[in-house]
Write a structure and sequence with these properties.
three-stranded antiparallel β-sheet; BirA Bifunctional Protein, domain 2
């Protein structure tokens, strides 16, 4: 009877409880260490065995019911508080949203992807290769035997002796691709990737840069095919009014070799500081694949011919977007990131 009275009193008190601190007081009064329900446990020791069983079961039942009543009241109070808060607070949906800065593709990445998509539409495959390369592929098979002046040790990062190095160009991937062709398959491939040279970093130089090289090997390929391909790339990047030209040059792995120029897109050929008042800007080195390189890779130069070209991705990006310092491509300055966002939007 005493247990039932305690539970009834608890119910009556909970009716008037409207705050969490009031509920804590009630909980302590009934279920605390000295609470009216907890203190009844001390009476068990004075009861007989049968009485202990009956009283103990009743006491546990009352404790459970009291705990449930208090927990339910707690949920009720929390729900009421939340509803009151939502009632008093309002959201003005006409206010402008908070602008959260978002990233944008780096312009070098954008240039690479742009050229990849263009050349893939022309039937080229995008091929990758190791950045730590063997001297054999980086130099020897490209008609650069040991002792050749173009193999200046001051220009190359050697990893182990003179046989293992960080590739100074992506041309080794061309060699590997031709070797896979076994002198039997025509090849159309480009290889965008990082290259490394021992150079001092400044506004126009870096010890690490992105190179985009292309190779086409087939039968009856001529310099005019290279010129046509270059025209397509130049007009795609710099506009339909962009003109191109070849100038004689020298590279050990091509013969004949040329430098490829575009008309200055800033002054439209009139002459300005960008083109050094010539009206033309050099953007690439290229040429017909040297017969020795074809032989080294298993292709008969009497039957097969081809052309190769190479662009610096950073240089193309600098020209296309009028950037005068390539170091901004690799910094985390948000002011520069915003510049990339604007150029990307354009």
């Amino acid at each position: 009877m005493e247990l039932e009275n305690i539970l009834e009193n608890l119910k009556n008190e909970l009716v008037n409880v409207n705050a969490e601190h009031q509920l804590n007081e009630v909980k302590t009064k009934y279920l605390g260490k000295k609470g009216s329900i907890t203190s009844l446990s001390s009476k068990i020791k004075d009861l007989s065995v049968e009485e202990k069983k009956t009283f103990g079961a009743s006491l546990n039942k009352i404790k459970t019911e009291a705990t449930n009543l208090i927990n339910n009241k707690k949920e009720e109070i929390e729900t009421n508080l939340l509803n009151e808060k939502l009632k008093n607070e309002s959201v003005d949906i006409s206010l402008p949203a908070i602008q959260i800065p978002v990233g944008a593709p780096n312009i070098v990445e954008k240039i690479v992807e742009d050229i990849e998509e263009l050349l893939m539409s022309m039937g080229y495959d995008v091929v990758d290769g190791p950045e730590i390369e063997l001297d054999k592929y980086n130099f020897e098979m490209l008609n650069l035997p040991k002792g050749h002046p173009a193999r200046d040790a001051q220009d190359t990062f050697y990893v182990q002796g003179e046989e293992l190095l960080l590739r100074s160009q992506t041309s080794p991937v061309q060699v590997r691709t031709m070797l896979e062709g076994k002198g039997e398959k025509p090849i159309r491939m480009i290889c965008p990737g990082k290259t490394y040279r021992r150079d001092d970093d400044d506004a126009t130089h870096s010890h690490q840069f992105m190179q985009i090289e292309g190779l086409l090997v087939d039968k009856n390929i001529s310099l005019s095919d290279l010129k046509g391909t270059f025209d397509v790339i130049a007009k795609h990047l710099f506009g339909e009014d962009c003109e191109t030209r070849f100038r004689p040059s020298y590279y050990p792995f091509t013969e004949p070799s040329v430098e490829m120029d575009i008309s200055c897109h800033v002054c439209k050929g009139k002459g300005c500081p960008i083109c050094k008042n010539t009206g033309w800007i050099t953007v690439s080195g290229a040429g017909m694949v040297h017969p020795n390189v074809l032989k080294n890779c298993g292709y008969d130069p009497k039957e097969w011919s081809g052309f190769a070209f190479g662009f610096g991705a950073e240089r193309l990006a600098m020209l296309k977007y009028n950037i005068d310092d390539l170091r901004v491509f690799y910094t985390n300055d948000l002011r520069e990131s915003k510049t990339f966002d604007r150029k990307e939007a354009n």
